[in-house]
Amino acid sequence: MQLYNLKHPDQVVSFKEASIKGLGKDRGLFFPTHIPQLDQIDELLQLDFLTRCERVVSAWIGDEFEPVIIRQMVERAFVFDAPLVKVKDGLHSLELFHGPTLAFKDFGARFMAQVLSRIASENIADGTPDDPNKSTNKMTILTATSGDTGAAVADAFYQIDNIDVVVLYPDGKISEAQKRLFTTLGDNISAVAIKSDFDACQRLVKLAFEDADINDELGLNSANSINISRLLAQICYYFEAVAQFVQQQGPGFVLSNETAPVISVPSGNFGNLTAGLFAKAMGLPIKHFIAATNSNDTVPRYLNGQNWQVNPTVATMSNAMDVSDPSNWPRVEAIFEKMGWSLDQLKGISINEAQTQAALLALTEHGYMAEPHAAVAFDAIRQLVGDSENAIFLATAHPAKFKEVVESVLKTPVKMPEKLRLAMELESHFEHCEDDFPALKSLLLKH
Length: 447
Ligand SMILES: *Cc1c(COP(=O)(O)O)cnc(C)c1O
Fold this sequence. Notes:
- By secondary structure, the chain is α/β, with parallel strands linked by helices.
- Helices cover 45% and strands 14% of the residues.
- It contains 18 helices and 14 strands.
- Strands 4-5-13-10-11-12 form a six-stranded mixed beta sheet, sandwiched between helices. A five-stranded parallel beta sheet has the order 9-6-7-8-14, sandwiched between helices. It has a three-stranded antiparallel beta sheet with strand order 2-1-3.
- Helix 6 links the parallel strand 6 (139-144) and strand 7.
- The two termini are 35 Å apart.
- Bound molecules: pyridoxal-5'-phosphate.
- Pyridoxal-5'-phosphate binds next to helix 11.
- One of its GO terms (biological process) is threonine biosynthetic process.
């Protein structure tokens, strides 16, 4: 797989390089030079989940990894299901929250962990570290989290050879459940509580990446949401959604672009939607997509004819989507351009807080408990999809992850999944650090 930098098209890299680098020159995003086409979609949709994932992933990176390695990475990454649950006739929820940290970010993070550990082990076998200027073959994932990403990344890399993870989080500003999920692991995972906010954590991470001592010593990798390996993993579950949809329609159903479901994606940084568009570009029938956002509505405003204008980010119940300048957007536009599709085919809608609460309640009338992110995607369907059409919304987090909000809106207790209950009983381990780069630097180099 070859990728080019959307800002500097002459920078062309392999998938492995793009996964290690994350971003290209001038912080440009990597984009595939070629989107592979899958034929015999009907046959593909009849395979089992892991075999289907293997086919999808191989179409992209089969030139860089042996088939047995791809199979192994897929088996180790996707250790949980993505069930398509019928909410009512014509409406389904694709539940992406059955992984270890109860949010869809587990798919991307776990696959990225497989890719990076594979690359790290190949470098060791190659003897690359003989280069005296490259002091180690160690790789350190340094990441800032406002809650969910840190947990997904930490869990995904837990006990993976040759890779350490350091998570920076704003002290006192994330929920206890979120914190427990990455501070109770130990081993190759460490956490640093920064006495400031999330923006400060992000700033510190950026400074660390610009620091030569830290880079040499630790082999930094950001593992953030623009990493191409995460997107590859996310393409897989769109195939899963359509496969289960077809099975549920029963015999006699003929899948085409017309009978295929509309998919509504609750969006923040737009990685999830980018992956969906890649799936459609590969040949998967999907009628069209809906980009559903909360009150951070830069994209819906733009799709509805206004200029691209980034307003200050506002805090909402669906806080993982509190993003006003989505970093994956250039990839979305690049796909439309490459495929010759019109952006008119992408529907955008912003759902406010009152609508989100009403949507959560409306879902319980169908016997379905969701959380605010899924509710935003569901409400978009209520507003934009006709009764005769089939639609799927992506349920990106488990209701227990947003227990407080869900309980206050629905006035019913949310059951804690076992994994979260156990983490709540373990002891947290973390270090404290001021919002001060020299202090963080000496802490990191001590590692
Ligand atoms: C990250 C996240 C989103 C937004 O996904 P993007 O790929 O950033 O658009 C939606 N829901 C949940 C629960 C998330 O954690």
